[in-house]
Automatic annotation (TrEMBL):
Upper lineage: Bacteria, Candidatus Methylomirabilota, Candidatus Methylomirabilia, Candidatus Methylomirabilales, Candidatus Methylomirabilaceae
Transmembrane segments: 6-27
Keywords annotated in UniProt: Membrane, Transmembrane, Transmembrane helix
Domain of life: Bacteria
Source species: Candidatus Methylomirabilis lanthanidiphila
Protein name: Heme exporter protein D
Length: 48
């Protein structure tokens, strides 16, 4: 019984870290694309 609770706790911990990792990756990608769009817009404004 105890071993099962340990396994469950470990699974939840690793699963949670994986979810956090994926979410951070997603947000980093979104930030990068937003930055790229802003740079493109600036260049467009400069060239007219």
């Amino acid at each position: 019984m105890n071993s099962w609770s340990y396994i469950l706790a470990g699974y939840l911990l690793t699963g949670g870290s994986v979810v956090v990792y994926l979410v951070s990756l997603h947000w980093r990608k979104r930030a990068a694309t937003a930055q790229r769009d802003a740079l493109r817009r600036q260049r467009k404004d400069m060239t007219g």
